[in-house]
Amino acid sequence: MIALAHAAAALCYVGAAALAAAPFVRPVAAPVRSVIGLLAAGVVAHLVALTALAVQMGSLPLFGLGPALSSAAFLLAVSLLAVEALARDVSLALVGAPFAGIVTLLSRVAGLSAVTEPQGARGVWLLSHVALSFLGIAAFGTAAAAATIYLVQRRELRSRRFGSVFRLFPPLATLDRVNHVATVIAWLGLSVGMVLAASYAVRYQVVDLPKIIWAVAAWAGVSVVTFGRVVGGWQARRAALLTSCIFGAVLLLYVVLRAAVDSSGRFL
Fold first, then answer.
1. DSSP letters of the chain?
2. Rounded CA separation 22/35 (Å)
3. Residues 6 or more apart from 50 whose CB is under 8 A from it?
4. Distant-in-sequence, close-in-space partners of 163: CB < 8 Å, separation ≥ 6
5. Which end of the chain is more exposed for a tag (fewer CB within 10 A), N or C?
6. Which residues of 124-134 are buried (b: 16+ CB within 10 A; e: fewer)?
7. CA–CA gap between residue 256 and residue 242 (Å, rounded)
8. Distance separating alpha carbons of residues 30 and 16, to the nearest angstrom
9. Which residues make Cβ contacts (< 8 Å) with residue 9, sequence separation at least 6?
């Protein structure tokens, strides 16, 4: 059941992206309701999978590489669904939905096995850190998706090619606002998650250098964009470009560290 529900969720996410891309193939209106419906179906299937996994594990599916990837993909899909439903626009699904689907499939490849996590107050402490970090990364992914679409839309406008991209993508101001708000949410989630992680490590003498490196790099990258926008007054294009590049670098660093280090399997 768990494997089938994960496969169904991934299929719905990829299907939503395919539907969102339909207007680029033929001159039709963006099927907003269908895309949102498929995203919602994927989220429901994913929730069923995670619920069954939690029952099987006897704990929330946040620890272990496979469960962590699945939970991260679920949060990204929920964030994407919320943004698309509120905006009544499906442009972000072109980037965010395939990414959520790929990560969902990777969670199955990695294996949905968990490591033993602490219980009691210590477990709540660790769980809070992991949950907030997931929220931050999911929000950062949403910001990166909006930034990527912004850059594509802006390029179309500057080249004066008013084709499908210009007709179907939301205004630059809307994409910039999504990028801005999502980046701030990402910074808040990762900042609080970092504080909880640091205090947990000091209190219980737990040190995992590769995960510390990745966490600090992710937080620093989000901080650069957030403070650049809020304090430095960065223009939308600069913020979008750096958001996309930094998010890509954070993902690459994670892959490198996972490949180079024999990790315990607990996702930061």
1. -HHHHHHHHHHHHHHHHHHHHHHHHSS----HHHHHHHHHHHHHHHHHHHHHHHHHHTS-TTSSHHHHHHHHHHHHHHHHHHHHHHHT--TTHHHHHHHHHHHHHHHHHH-S-------HHHHHHHHHHHHHHHHHHHHHHHHHHHHHHHHHHHHHHHTT--SHHHHHSPPHHHHHHHHHHHHHHHHHHHHHHHHHHHHHHHHHT---HHHHHHHHHHHHHHHHHHHHHHTT---HHHHHHHHHHHHHHHHHHHHHHHHHS---S---
2. 10
3. 61, 70, 71, 74
4. 156
5. N
6. ebbbebbbbbb
7. 21
8. 11
9. 42, 43, 45, 46, 49, 74, 77, 101, 104
What does the CA dihedral 78, 81, 87, 92 come to, rounded to 10 degrees? 100
10-residue mean pLDDT profile of the chain (268 residues): values are 90 89 66 88 93 82 76 85 77 80 83 63 71 84 88 80 62 85 88 84 78 89 90 87 93 82 50
| Tokens standing for residue 253 | 């660093």
Per the CB < 8 A criterion, the answer to whether 207 and 201 are in contact is: yes
The tokens of 102 are what? 């790929």
The structure tokens 């769980």 sit at 127
Q: How far apart are CA 158 and CA 129, in angstroms?
A: 43
The predicted structure's pLDDT at residue 164: 58
Q: Which two tokens stand for residue 221?
A: 């990258």
Angle ∠(72,138,131) on CA atoms, nearest 5: 60
Residue 185 in tokens: 């949410």
